[in-house]
Amino acid sequence: MDVAADNRALIAALDAGDVGVLADATARRLREELVAEGGYLLELLPRPIFCAPDQVRALGDRGRSLIALQSRLIEELIAAEGRAGFLDRFEVAPALRDLVHWDELVAPRYLVGRLDLLRLADGSFRCCEMNVDSCVAGAEIFDAGRDTFLALGLDVDRLPERPLDQLADLLADTARRLGAERIVILDWSVGGGSAGKGYISYDRMRAAVQRASGLPVHIADETSFDPAWLAPAEAARTLVHRGFMMEEMDDDGAFLRRLIGAGAHVFSLLEADIRMDKGWLALLWDARRAGRCTAAEAALLDSFVPETWQVTAADIELLVARRDDLIFKTRQAFGGAGILIGAETPAATLRDALAAAPEHWIAQVMIAPETLAMPHAPGEPLQVHDIVYGLYLYGTAENGFLLRGSTTSRIVNVSSGRGRIGWALALDDGDRTSFLLQLAAVAS
């Protein structure tokens, strides 16, 4: 059986009789646990699904190849424009330009990211966004999929490694390489930190990193960071993992400068914001259209990234005329904001939005993804969902997928489109069959 057929069978089995009652009760309990950890904004899809490990590995390789192409273009742009011109291109504020880790920008060793993918009816995937940033969240939702199967009495030993444990391995390896003796997960106090803003606290991550590294692991923000760790000898033994978004800082980077100036090892600074700029999707395709890609790079873009253009004032009328086939995104927005689906946007509205600041917009071929029928909430019937699949990358490891599903909007996000989140667990054919047989036994 293929994965899509196995998922239809899985969802049917999880909705059947007493199994469905228990699965719904488990979903409600897991939601309560998320809320207790601060994640009150996070609504769970009540059913996990399957994905294929070989496809996850292949997509991880493609994602790293895409990031390698991005790295090559970064080097070319810096060589052509100089560092100042490069930072001008990405509108990095002059006051923050010293917070770019140039070596890590060009050749990332501390790679943390999530590719947002759409699955097509033929089972292939297309990458619609690249999120390369240490603060990429959501890996904890794997636990909800695992715990659903555990509550039903299934053999969860066959499940893949937790993505949090893969992230923990990356942190532990980095700490060993640098000779660090403590690890700090750095939050930002404004808004109450991660949990105060409705997302999960870092407690699960801290536990995973502590197990992997054997080191003391602390959660701190700019107000609670131990001053003793800023002494030069101690700072040199401190690895800092940034968990907050750079734009959350309200001190113009002063605290990060203190850490760096003291000698602490701080990764994923403004180089992450530069890589996250959606304008890269257009730059990658510009290189493809100009013949500056190798045959392998061109094939990667052709088969994996929807064609994308940087909007210019001269192109607006052409793009508006083609809007039914396009989606428009602002380069630096996130969370479902700054997106206009061409087919759903009146010509005048789109024209005005693009004309106001064309340099801030990209246009991308709109992909018609495969939908998935599953309950949207415990106790609800099957409903058709638009799904975005989030593939996590941690160094050379990958894990997936975080599911973001909506029944009301093709812009799928937890803050828009009635979005909910879940997980697709990577199991091979034999293990998927075993899980379905175990579910049948539970139901009988």
List the helices and strands and how they pair.
Layout (H helix, E strand, L loop, with lengths): L2 H12 L2 H20 L12 E3 L1 H37 L12 H5 L5 E8 L5 E8 L9 H10 L11 H16 L3 E5 L6 H4 L6 H11 L3 E4 L11 H4 L2 E5 L11 H9 L2 E3 L2 H7 L2 H11 L5 H10 L3 E3 L5 H6 L4 E5 L8 E3 L5 H10 L4 E5 L5 E5 L6 E13 L2 E10 L13 E7 L2 H15 L1
Parallel strand pairs: 1-15, 4-5, 4-6, 6-7
Antiparallel strand pairs: 2-3, 2-13, 8-11, 9-10, 9-11, 12-13, 13-14, 14-15
Helix pairs in contact: 1-16, 2-5, 3-13, 6-8
Q: In words, what does this structure look like?
A:
Helix 3 packs across helix 13 and helix 6 (163-178) packs across helix 8. The chain is built from 16 helices and 15 strands. The protein is α/β, with parallel strands linked by helices and 444 residues long. A hairpin with a 2-residue loop joins strand 13 (382-394) and strand 14 (397-406). The protein has two domains: 3-277 and 370-443, no CATH class; 307-366, Dna Ligase, domain 1. The strands form three sheets. Strands 1, 2, 3, 12, 13, 14 and 15 form a seven-stranded mixed sheet that branches. A four-stranded parallel sheet has the order 5-4-6-7, sandwiched between helices. A four-stranded antiparallel sheet has the order 8-11-9-10.
